[in-house]
Design brief:
0% strand; 7 helices; 2 domains
């Protein structure tokens, strides 16, 4: 939008209702195709972890649709919340432990063990964000009291 336009003879002389693919469109098609290949490729790995087809399907849908946009949202949040990186590291540790001890956790926590783990993950994230907000308030109050 802010860049100067460059005259393009092919675009200018194109017939109405003609579909033209630019190099950027081809790059987008390639990136999305790669996303799709990786999502399909991960299906056997997910079935190794769980036998629930609904979980496999929904995780792949979310991976295809939301992972890239979630990354940029998370990158912006990491800049805003000081302790979010620590929280995310703890979440990754919880997920790793869950993968290693999945069978034992099912026995110990019962059939709703995924719900308990989700509660732990959400709690870690909430505590990280809350600690960041409190630390920022404390920093601002110190600056204003001087």
């Amino acid at each position: 939008p802010g860049a100067p336009s460059v005259p393009d003879e092919v675009v200018d002389k194109a017939q109405p209702r003609t579909v033209l693919l630019t190099p950027l469109a081809l790059a987008l098609i390639m990136v999305e195709t790669t996303d799709l290949i990786f999502a399909v490729d991960s299906i056997p790995a997910i079935f190794a972890i769980t036998g629930d087809p609904f979980l496999v399907f929904t995780s792949n849908v979310f991976a295809i649709l939301g992972l890239r946009s979630l990354y940029f949202a998370l990158a912006g949040m990491v800049k805003k919340f000081r302790y979010l990186k620590v929280s995310l590291a703890l979440v990754l540790m919880v997920v790793g432990v869950k993968m290693l001890l999945a069978e034992w956790l099912k026995l110990a926590l019962g059939k709703h063990f995924n719900l308990y783990l989700l509660t732990v993950i959400l709690s870690i994230l909430v505590v990280g964000v809350a600690a960041s907000v409190l630390a920022e308030r404390r920093r601002l109050s110190r600056l204003t009291s001087r």
